[in-house]
């Protein structure tokens, strides 16, 4: 753990507000407030949606306390993750609409100064980790204090916060200074070859979070942990009133989920498969088109992580799914087979299969499909594939969250992925709130479509079900 001062040793300081202005950034426009503390060090707070008159009952703002790092923040160093954390924190605070980034100067090298940090770099090049390098130079593992941070927050009228940090010691220090930390949300960046050892040291020797112990099991139980990367990514899915319909699709950067021959093994990587299985474990039902299910002989179960299997729902207006498909013979999870009125159904099906005959030929409207599932107590739904099915549900305006994973390859021609109605002007294009994270070589973009107008009301009919395979080559 880092060597934080005990509460008795914590210095008490005051700060002087020197300037107040605005700062437009690519993340949005922030209020920028400058301070000077008693040592003469100058600091900044970038905030949005915070006033000194916020009532005590208001939702605590999301606050990132960011330690100055010239090499990472300004020069783009890959020895650390500071620059990436800075930009992602600004993105999250702007998206939240109520929060602040406290930029604390004098914290270079965890408080040892710029020159000493570079000397520590040289020791790290010789084999020491970041903790031992600081100790070798005669410094604490972590010499930072946060009294100036508490004073700046108090000046802004902020006494209760949701802390955006993976560092439990930072939470402990702020709490000792009188700041009420009601929750701590991890801020985790993907590892690179240049900083993998640095990140491992933060995790193993300084207690920084990766996946908090028991975090996934809390989510499965319907409780959102106060910290952790999984809580950040999936917490909304289990909160009361959270997204009811989510969709997931993986595709190449040029927008295909398979080649023109149907080969889709594999567009996205194993990390995306784990992400998909987490989504499955958190929903009541997973919906797939029959052609996708048949092409992959899909199981639609949860295997890459711990968790319950969802009810499997196959939309099959033309009777594409063969009677010996895994989902029809394997009773691992209940299966709802929705068929068109003219589709012949085998007389003897396994007891885990429920056959639902759609009242009309052709179209299976997304709204009607969801109503059918709600009637069976299946309120939280994942729409998984293929590309036309996901696109149809998005166009119908019934998807609350869309997880679109893009892989760094160019297929050139093949089975299309996500497609929405075209816009003549870019001003009319769909621009929902988004957030992103890296999974291995892939990037997940989460679109918040809650409240978005339908892009194009269109039925999910026969054309939506045929010639579509899953982005991973199996609807795994």
Descriptive account of the structure:
Strand 2 and strand 3 form a beta hairpin. The protein folds into 2 domains: 204 residues, GTP cyclohydrolase II (Rossmann fold, 3-Layer(aba) Sandwich); 223 residues, 3-Layer(aba) Sandwich (Dihydrofolate Reductase, subunit A), CATH 3.40.430.10. The longest helix has 15 residues. Helices cover 28% and strands 24% of the residues. The relative contact order is 0.11. By secondary structure, it is of the alpha/beta class. It starts with 14 loop residues before the first strand and ends in an 11-residue tail after the last helix.
Quick recap:
The protein has helices at 70-74, 82-96, 108-111, 114-125, 130-136, 147-155, 168-176, 196-206, 215-220, 229-238, 270-281, 290-296, 326-329, 366-375, 387-395, 462-465, and strands spanning 15-25, 28-37, 42-48, 62-67, 99-104, 160-164, 180-185, 245-252, 256-259, 285-289, 311-316, 335-339, 353-357, 381-385, 401-407, 414-416, 434-439, 442-448.
Percent range for β-strand residues? 15-25%
Counting structural domains, the number is 2
Provide the residue-averaged pLDDT. 85
**Dominant shape:** elongated
Q: How does CATH name the architecture of the largest domain?
A: 3-Layer(aba) Sandwich
Q: Can you count the helices?
A: 16
Spatial order of the strands forming the largest sheet? 13-12-11-10-14-8-15-18-17
How many strand elements?
A: 18
Q: List unreliable stretches of 5+ residues.
A: 1-11, 456-476
């Amino acid at each position: 753990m880092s060597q934080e001062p005990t509460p008795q040793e914590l210095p008490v300081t005051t700060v002087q507000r020197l300037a107040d202005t605005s700062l437009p950034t690519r993340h949005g426009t922030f209020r920028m407030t400058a301070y000077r503390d008693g040592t003469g060090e100058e600091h900044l707070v970038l905030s949005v949606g915070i006033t000194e008159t916020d009532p005590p009952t208001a939702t605590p703002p999301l606050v990132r306390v960011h330690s100055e790092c010239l090499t990472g923040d300004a020069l783009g160093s890959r020895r650390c993750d500071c620059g990436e954390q800075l930009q992602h924190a600004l993105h999250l605070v702007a998206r939240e609409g109520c929060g602040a980034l406290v930029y604390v100067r004098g914290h270079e090298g965890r408080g040892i100064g710029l020159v000493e940090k570079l000397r520590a770099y040289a020791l790290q090049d010789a084999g020491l980790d970041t903790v031992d390098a600081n100790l070798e130079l005669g410094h604490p593992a972590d010499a930072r204090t946060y009294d100036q941070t508490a004073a700046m927050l108090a000046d802004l009228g902020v006494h209760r916060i949701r802390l955006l940090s993976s560092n439990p010691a930072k939470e402990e220090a702020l709490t000792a200074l009188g700041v009420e930390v009601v929750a701590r949300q991890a801020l985790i960046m993907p590892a690179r070859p240049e900083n993998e050892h640095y990140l491992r040291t933060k995790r193993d020797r300084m207690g920084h979070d990766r996946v908090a112990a028991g975090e996934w099991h809390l989510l499965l139980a319907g409780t959102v942990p106060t910290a952790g990367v999984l809580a950040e990514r999936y917490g909304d899915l289990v909160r009361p009133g959270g997204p009811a319909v989510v969709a997931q699709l993986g595709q190449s950067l040029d927008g295909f989920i398979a080649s023109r021959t149907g080969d889709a093994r594999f567009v996205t990587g194993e990390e995306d498969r784990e992400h998909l299985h987490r989504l499955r474990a958190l929903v009541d039902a997973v919906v797939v088109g029959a052609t996708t299910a048949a092409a992959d002989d899909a199981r639609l179960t949860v295997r890459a992580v711990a968790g319950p299997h969802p009810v499997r729902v196959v939309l099959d207006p033309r009777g594409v799914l063969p009677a010996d498909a895994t989902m029809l013979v394997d009773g691992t999870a209940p299966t709802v087979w929705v068929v068109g009125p003219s589709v012949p159904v085998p007389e003897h099906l396994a007891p885990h299969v429920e056959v639902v005959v759609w009242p009309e030929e052709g179209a299976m409207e997304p709204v009607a499909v969801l109503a059918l599932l709600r009637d069976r107590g299946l309120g939280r739904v994942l729409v998984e594939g293929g590309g036309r099915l996901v696109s149809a549900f998005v166009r119908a305006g019934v998807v609350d969250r869309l997880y679109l994973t893009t892989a760094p390859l160019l297929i050139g021609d093949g089975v299309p992925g996500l497609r929405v109605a075209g816009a003549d002007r870019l001003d009319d294009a769909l621009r929902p709130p988004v957030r992103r994270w890296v999974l291995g070589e892939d990037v997940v973009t989460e679109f918040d479509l809650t409240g978005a107008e339908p892009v194009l009301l269109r039925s999910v009919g026969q054309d939506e079900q045929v010639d579509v395979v899953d982005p991973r080559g199996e609807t795994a």
